[in-house]
Design a protein that fits this description.
Layout: H1 15-30, H2 45-55, E1 67-72, H3 75-96, H4 99-105, H5 116-119, E2 122-129, E3 131-135, E4 141-145, H6 149-166, E5 170-171, H7 180-185, E6 192-201, H8 217-220
Antiparallel strand pairs: 1-2, 2-6, 3-4, 5-6
Helix pairs in contact: 2-6
Length: 224
């Protein structure tokens, strides 16, 4: 069957409006910071759902959309996730991390303790779907492999973080390694691989962040 195509929904903007929009978006995104001091104040779930819908519009290999977003609000589940993450992080900080890595982390003031995993009102756990079950013509089960799964889920994660920031919410990207415990706690199928753990909420009034700088345009862009 030939593919079906529809007209592109695209509106070309005047150049000055394009400049205004992209600069406003740049300024908004540049204010985003990774937060570790979360208030326990509740977050409306419809804000999170809208951000996830935005992330779900990200491009993906062969449009397979290889992602799953698990929203965690249950205090007991958050406690178990914190315990699992701290066990892996303590092993990393005390035994696995090479000295150079620890030196790079030192200015950020992080350690294996992750209280924000319980304090933040919402945790979003992103899973990458490496394959999906598919029925063969004879009724047997086969595996439909995903394409560019890592890249696709990474793009969706960036959209999600930006959408949450745009909604006035604070976030953090947390990647305890290994993350198998997340699939076990959240009872995910074997074809879903934990990709990213994102606490979501509002910062405390006393929240602080490291005094770090981002690279300038000249440092990250080349023109040929």
């Amino acid at each position: 069957m030939p593919p079906t195509f529809v007209p592109l929904d695209f509106h070309r903007l005047p150049v000055e409006e394009s400049r205004s929009r992209v600069r406003a978006f740049r300024d908004l995104v540049r204010r985003r910071r990774s937060v570790r001091d979360f208030s326990s104040d509740p977050v409306p779930l419809d804000l999170v759902d809208a951000a996830i819908e935005a992330a779900g519009s990200a491009p993906s290999g062969a449009n397979r959309q290889p992602w799953r977003f698990v929203v965690v609000t249950d205090p007991e589940t958050k406690r178990r996730i914190r315990e699992g993450a701290e066990a892996e992080e303590q092993e990393f900080y005390e035994r696995k991390a090479p000295p150079a890595w620890l030196a790079d982390l030192a200015p950020l003031g992080t350690d294996w303790r992750k209280p924000f995993l319980e304090t933040a009102p919402i945790l979003i756990v992103m899973f990458a779907i490496d394959w999906e079950p598919e029925a063969g013509p004879d009724g047997s089960q086969t595996r439909h492999k995903g394409y560019y799964v890592q890249e696709s889920v990474g793009i969706a994660a960036g959209v999600l973080l930006t959408a949450l920031h745009g909604a006035g919410l604070a976030t953090l990207t947390h990647t305890p390694s290994p993350m198998r415990f997340l699939g076990e706690i959240l009872v995910r199928p074997k074809n879903e691989r934990p990709f990213l753990l994102i606490p979501v909420g509002y910062p405390t009034p006393e929240a602080t962040v490291p005094d770090i700088k981002k690279k300038s345009l000249d440092e990250i862009r080349e023109t040929r």
